[in-house]
Amino acid sequence: xxxxxxxxxxxxxxxxxxxxxxxxxxxxxxxxxxxxxxxxxxxxxxxxxxxxxxxxxxxxxxxxxxxxxxxxxxxxxxxxxxxxxxxxxxxxxxxxxxxxxxxxxxxxxxxxxxxxxxxxxxxxxxxxxxxxxxxxxxxxxxxxxxxxxxxxxxxxxxxxxxxxxxxxxxxxxx
Length: 174
Description:
The protein is an alpha/beta fold.
């Protein structure tokens, strides 16, 4: 029913946290497959994915979308954690809707107003539940999961996500 896609680059710790929050969905039979779409990791991301039983692909999100078995895709950032109740909300939405959806942010994960105004907005911070057909069409012109999620009209799911911490900019040594 649902394929989970996580686009990552050098984020083995974040990937571990995200995969742990998906266990309930796999046990319930809602999560059909998890695909880790790697964009050039040099850490142990591939080992984390393989040990967790995920499909590990290189080549980005478009490759993952083509390999996904579910009719619906859940795109997540590495480090994001789905909160209790997400399974029922996703099942209800996919049974009744065709429109994409996002999770609500967990109370402790919400960003204060001024910080939101002055920080870069991450389109995948709230996750994205999208039909495979719509994602495949968007992937033709989008180079990343973030680009697929940006600017989409979505519904709000009655479930919460603890958003992934923002990635720090990597500085080159001087």
